[in-house]
Amino acid sequence: MTDAIDAKFHPRVFSGVQPTGNLHLGNYLGAIKRFVEMQDVCDCVYCVVDLHAITQPVSVWGGPKQLASNIREVTAAFLAAGIDPVRHIVFNQSRVPEHAELAWVFNCIARLGWMERMTQFKEKAGKDRERASLGLFAYPSLMAADILLYKATAVPVGEDQKQHLELTRDIAQKFNNDFAESIRDHGFGDAFFPMTAPLIHGPATRVMSLRDGAKKMSKSDPSDLSRINLTDDRDTIAQKLRKAKTDPEPLPSEPAGLEGRPEAQNLVGIYAALAGRTTADVLAEYGGAQFSGFKSALTDLAVDKLGPMGAEMKRLVADTTHVDGVLAAGAERAAAIARPVMDGVKDVVGFLR
Ligand code: TYM
Questions:
Q1: pLDDT tens across 331-346, in order?
Q2: Domain boundaries, the chain
Q3: CATH class assigned to 12-205+320-349
Q4: CA 234 to centroid of ligand 1, rounded, Å
Q5: Disulfide: which of 18, 69, 213, 252 matches 263 by Cβ 3.0-4.6 Å?
Q6: CA 261 to ligand 1 center in whole angstroms
Q7: pTM here?
Q8: 145 in Cβ contact with 99 (< 8 Å)
């Protein structure tokens, strides 16, 4: 098989994770585990999106020392989960200035009204919108730039990123329309940017809090009991799952029986995703079981899958030379793709260079 055929059938994948601390099971099952799976079929670019991290108040991302350590921690999680930084590209966003450059152009393409509709902005800004940073408001423009700078067509993410990916398509489409003539004149054909498809699949696209089945598992939840962190040890995982909220009924034998039982649905989804099985398959085995038994099986499975990864993460975090080397080398390779795309954007828009 030639490179050309590979490139034709296996589009480039891009995805990112914010270095904001407390990497958890939702990040793993909804995103990082999927990143690993994509490696055999696609060219992948995986980014530690540090420019996104500073859109929140300094008190949230923790200040300069914390940011540096969180960037290394996310990188360590990528590597420990099995991402191969030689075959694929792993880097931190701020090292490739074209991300910010293209985001500016997209700020001038995207409309205020589009940003106003973003639920993540509303959630993160909270009631006091006036005090939210301009960066938080424009966040989706930067995210579109991340993806389109690599002309990536596939983006594995959790459910919460779907709206941002729809906006990415809107931005690509408007750029292609606004500059249609220039795009043709410069020999780029009918469209400069491709349409991006979100990859949101499997039983754990939205892992919920262990304390409240109506809330997403999140890095920022003040209760550590709400999430399983990727570096939690066996005892901590066991304790968190033991305390996880459930309902009084035994588990149903079929997925339809999970309807209206968010906590049960969440735990079964986590089990299925960790085991690489379907929800139906898990319920065929555990239907009728009490939660106590199921929780201890889930603890064993979680420790089995996460334990070695957490240990490797801790080892890598301590090896800053290695991690920093991976990021520096990855950034050079990322820039080699990003630069000519940005040059094309400049030509199309009419900037002289
Ligand atoms: P972030 O850092 O909040 O989360 C990283 C990834 O983890 C997924 N995720 C979840 N999946 C399932 N259940 C959960 N409870 C859960 N919590 C988080 C997220 O969906 C995400 O895939 N905006 C992005 C980062 C980003 C990005 C990009 C992603 C910046 N540029 C370009 C893709 C492409 C974010 O805040 O992810």
A1: 999 999 999 999 999 9
A2: 12-205+320-349, 224-316
A3: alpha beta
A4: 25
A5: 213
A6: 25
A7: 0.96
A8: yes
